[in-house]
Fold this protein.
Amino acid sequence: MQPADKGPLNPGTEFDPTGGGLGSLVRSWGVHWNTTPERPCLFFAGDRTIRYGELEAASRRAAGRLHGAGLVPGDRVLISAASSAELVIAHVACLRGGWVVVPANTAYRQAEVAHLVADARPRAAIVDDPQRGRWIRDQDNSIRVLSPDLPLADAPAPELDTASPMDPALIGYTSGTTGQPKGAVLSHANLLASVEALRLAWRWTPMDRLVLALPLFHMHGLGVGLHGTLHAGASAVVLPGFEPNAVFEAIAEHEASLFFGVPTLYHRLVESTRVGEMNRLRLCVSGSAPLPAELHTRFESLTGQQIVERYGMTETVMLASNPVDGERRPGTVGLPLPGVEIRLAGDPAEIEVRGANVFGGYWERPEANAEAFREDGFFRTGDLGRLDDAGYLVISGRARELLISGGYNVYPREVEEALAEHAGITECAVVGTPSAEWGDAITAYLVALPGVEISAEEVRAFLSQRLAPYKHPRLVHCIEALPRNALGKVQKHRLEAGRVLDEESA
Ligand code: MLC
Ligand code: AMP
């Protein structure tokens, strides 16, 4: 599939991944704070509004403080905090100063945080939870741990916005295939190319106002929601978390036009009697996990809105989208975004992608890069795909063992390894059970030592210090033995509905 440089996703001018020669996201944002400093940019709880000019000044001040604390370009800054004005300002400051942002989920437990710290070796960490701060210091006492308001002495800012397009801007951690999470290094050019494609494809203009209820420590909320807003010169209502009534109130109070969510958010919205209020929006977008066709239809019948489903990943930011003008096909992720080449390779066909948005490689992992990239530069997504009769991309499965719960990736092997440390468990397998709310409900099948009873509560308590809660099994089944084939390999497809299926019925 060739990039949709012309066609329903880009009916206008040629796609230019550099945004007209700007080269980096921060320079594109600079256009807005220089030309429209009075334009509202971000709205937060408590009637706090930040205008473009204020974002420039506040991020400059924050960058001065970080510079004064000794940070030099290329230093990594781990950021793990709930959405707030201070968090956004600190993030913008880091990108402006050439410091590389390493976002981390606030649900991570000590071992998960320790891995990120050991791997990325950040110079500073911005966290909103003292315990997370202690875990980081326990790992490396030289890391400067700060709250998002950066309580440091004011100092003159260094020269800002000078990072070159190929300089690293962000390292997003993902397990990709199996094994320990790896950092996907995204350059300033990668981040810019992706939001420029979205600006065109979604007709994102300064008039738009997004309700942003997704966390800012993953690509959806950060690389799409926040970066895209600032690139378009638009505005966003930033909520501290997702709660349906807060979304409806933000839409009404701020006359919002856009909403982005993972399918779980749409699932919860349709349960509300107020869901019809979403009809005021110009565009609702879903991604990060498959949007069930029934949910698409139900949402449309209740709101008159046809959700635009799109597809992306940490390593590539966004790849494909259903059109804003043109047919939106439920069950598909649409057409390649401007500048993105997509091809299907092998049997079963894996989705491979190339474009200015695609990351350059994993942080200090040459062997993983050799596996992830083809010689001609295409990146192997690990997702399986096919084209439907109209040429729309359908994600038909996953080549890697990955579950997605509420929009968060969960790697069964990581959960299995944690469970294997339990003295009463002799073997275990983790699979997904289809769930209307979560997508994949994480499910553990356990074989316990003879005479040992292990409840779901016991499993969750055991994992509580080891894994983020969203990785904990929601369903736990004790069975006598795992089903294996003649070679001894576990047959996960025979684990269903709490039991082991016969080979014939599986
Ligand atoms: C929270 N819980 C989850 C969970 N999120 N369990 C499974 N899966 C999840 N995703 C747990 C909590 O720990 C809690 O456990 C219980 O569920 C109830 O919590 P809650 O209050 O209902 O959850 P809430 O805080 O409302 O969070 C649910 C959610 C959140 C859907 C709002 O998960 C979320 O924001 N998801 C979005 C993820 C996202 O941004 N993904 C983008 C990745 S980027 P207990 O034990 O305490 O009861 C990407 C690329 C791309 O994928 O294409 O976009
Ligand atoms: P992450 O590594 O968290 O960025 O997650 C990326 C993965 O989410 C992709 O490789 C896909 O498997 C999945 N994904 C993202 N968007 C969609 C979608 N619209 N439909 C199905 N899967 C999706």
Observations:
- The first helix runs from residue 25 to 35.
- The domain at 403-500 is CATH 3.30.300.30 (GMP Synthetase; Chain A, domain 3).
- The CA atoms of residues 427 and 463 lie 16 Å apart.
- The pocket of malonyl-coenzyme A (ligand 1) is lined by residues 214-215, 218-221, 241-242, 262, 264, 287-288, 312-314, 405-408, 438, 469-470 (CB under 6 Å).
